[in-house]
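Methods — Computational structure assignment.
A single polypeptide chain was analysed. Its primary sequence is given first, followed by the predicted tertiary structure written as structure tokens.
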Amino acid sequence: MARDLVTHLARFAGALRAGGIRVGLSDEVDGVSALTLVDIADRGEVLSALRTAFKIRPPDRGAFEALFDRFWGGEGPRPIRRERRTSGLPGAPRATTLLWGGDGNADRGGGEPEPGSGEAPGYSPELLLRRRPFEECSPEDLAALEPLLRRLARRLATRRSRRLVPARGRGHPDLRRSFRRAVGTGGELLALARRDRALEWPRLVVLCDTSGSMDPFSRFLLAFVLSVKRAARRTELFAFNTALTRLTPWLSPGQVGRTLERLAAGVPDWSGGTRIGESLAQFAAEYLESTVGAGTAVLILSDGLDRGDTALLTAAMRAIHARARMLIWLNPLLADPRYEPTARGMQAALPFVDHFCPAHNLESLERLIPLLGV
């Protein structure tokens, strides 16, 4: 994979030069080094890293970003928008890209690579599993996904904020604190004080729809949430269908699959009907004040298919949105470009949603990390 990445980066640099942007061999080396310091699954971080490493001048930024989209295409979750995909099928891969989907042939006009030629980045079993739609996954796939879910949860739970705090060893020099220390040593600057980005634990409240229409997705989404709960302890988990059930006290260490079986057996009306408005109204009345604060991100995992009272849903969403730091609605149906949020429940909820995102495979869940970063 590393070799493929270097090859792809070299082709990208060649395309920049062909487009009149000055990029030297040393810049390519800096680019490879920069990619080792960022999260290569985060498109924004890769864009910033390469723009800095290649020393892109302001007049060339437009051309640079256009070529970046061609070689490293794809977009992360955007507020109240659907993701663009290459076909009309749910879970179809994203446009040409190495890290975020596609076939890696953007630099060769979309031609098919010759088998065994080694000219294009290949797919790994892990990559295919990350992109497989949840509705196509088997119980064996869930077991294979568990290590990936744990890794994703750790990335979420250990994401650093932009706030700088005193640090030992590595970090940015803190000259002001260094000079204050020097006062006690007669003006001698014996060692530099340093500071680094703070590690802050995210605070999450997750409400997962376990109705029949969500059955192909809910087990995998709950597996993701269980992994997050283990890594970020300040996570509250609720299930809802025709009523609301707080799941946090039910959770215990062990395999995700076994925990899900216990939840499925214990949650009333699992895979049954759904009353989103009544369930969220119950959450707002009984749990909102104790679980949601100014630093809390609330995630609602649902397809929004509800025939209940939209007035209750509107009031509950308004109350949750007013109290939470961020309200994210994850809808598996959003993976299909033909989908429109025309259901009455979804239309009632959207005005209070900060980010409307797909949640149909592991790759879509990975794109939540920049949104949930504190």
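Note: Residues 74-123 have pLDDT under 50 and may be disordered.
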